[in-house]
Amino acid sequence: MNQVLTVSQFLDALNETMGFAFPEVTIQGEVSSFKVNQGKWVFFDVKDQDATLGCFMTLYQLKTPLEDGMQVRVIGTPKLTKWGKFSFTVKRVELAGEGALKRAFLLLQKKLSEEGLFAAERKRPLPQYPKTIGLVASGQSAAYADFIKILGQRWGGLTIQLADVQVQGAAALDQVVGAIRQFNEAAEPVDVIVVIRGGGSLEDLQAFNTEDVARAVAGSRIPTIVGVGHEVDVSLADMAADVRAATPTDAARIVVPDRLAVMGELDSRTARMEQHIRQSLLRREQLLLGHVTRMERFVRQPIERLARAAINLRRDLGTIERTLQLREQKLEGLVRNLKNVDPKAVLARGYSLVRQNDKLIKSAKDLSSESTFMIQFANDTAIARKE
């Protein structure tokens, strides 16, 4: 006798059987009837020429823009709902074909651009002389080897902290986002974050064209430089970075200066500074010399006037001295003359003076016999009477 099952038991048994048979299956087809309900539930169909499969996932799981007509690969598990409807529960979506990738790129670029994620005013300058670089790359890749080689040639003494990540495939997205977040949350943050990957197809570079990676780059507190692919490849991560490098090698040239160029610039600046100092000293010397010349002129003029005055004074003193000598000689002559006519001098030579009644007697006949008269000698006098 056949086992009797309830509807729920039957659906559970079928889902269990399909889970064992198809724990995870990848299906490729064209998207149709794409819609988002309540801002969190995503419904769409994938189809080929002969069949259509209904798909369901959350908006959080959808990492790339979708629209009808895109070729995609959906990875997930089949399921019968409680309403008896067959559905495919999607874990992730991968774009298939260049057309779908380009279309998704343009849709997401438009969305993020309208948000201002790529705006020039959001860009920050890179540190001129970084000491520590946070490098997000595959440690076994040629891009990593080229970056380290050019870095060593241009600059030395750097600390490189490598976040060794997958740069393509399903795990690449989460690893790249996690590495950027880890550098930002480190206790001792790096000076700059560099994200690099070598060239490849649009599908190979898909991780760097996702919304999560673009937002992680744009939201980094640490300045970022992204060099993904070849020169012609421009990813959304490139657009979101503070600085875009055309290639990983170009990223190494941008993130550090060339030591030879820096040394040349230092030599040039030193020469200009020395020239400036010499010119400044020369100007100061000339200015000081001008001050000294003016001071000498200012001091010399009074000195010259004093010298001339001294010469004039000496000349005047000579004239006065000669005048005094002449006057002294004349005075001596006068003194001699006075001495010669001095009565005392005459008396000293043996002469005498006769006075009578206070009158000088010049002749004997002038003497009166009635009174005495006085004879004055050089040293004494005598009284006499005329007989």
In a nutshell, what does this entry contain?
The chain is an alpha/beta fold and 387 residues long.
Write structural notes for this entry.
Helix 3 packs parallel to helix 7 and helix 4 packs parallel to helix 5. Helices cover 44% and strands 23% of the residues. It has 387 residues and is an alpha/beta fold. It is rod-shaped and about 225 Å long. It has 9 helices and 14 strands. It has helices at residues 7-21, 98-114, 142-154, 172-185, 211-218, 236-240, 248-255, 259-341, 343-348; strands at 25-37, 41-47, 52-58, 71-80, 86-95, 132-137, 159-164, 192-197, 224-228, 243-244, 353-356, 359-360, 372-376, 381-385. The longest helix has 83 residues, at 259-341. A 5-stranded mixed beta barrel has the order 1-2-3-5-4. It has 4 domains: 7-96, Beta Barrel (OB fold (Dihydrolipoamide Acetyltransferase, E2P)), CATH 2.40.50.140; 120-257, 3-Layer(aba) Sandwich (Rossmann fold); 273-341; 344-385, no CATH class.
Mean pLDDT: 85
Rg, nearest Å = 63 Å
- Classified in CATH, the superfamily of the largest domain is Response regulator
- At the first level of CATH, the class of the largest domain is Alpha Beta
Total individual domains: 4
Estimate the helix proportion, in percent.
40-55%
Lateral strand order in the biggest sheet: 1-2-3-5-4
Largest sheet: 5 strands, mixed, barrel
E-strand count: 14
Q: Tell me the CATH architecture of the largest domain.
A: 3-Layer(aba) Sandwich
- Shape assignment: rod-shaped
Helix/strand-derived category reads alpha/beta
Question: Which segments are poorly predicted (pLDDT under 50) over 5 or more consecutive residues?
Answer: none
**CA-to-CA gap between the ends?**
227 Å
- Helices, by number, come to 9
Give helix and strand order, one letter per element, not per position. Answer: HEEEEEHEHEHEHEHEHHHEEEE
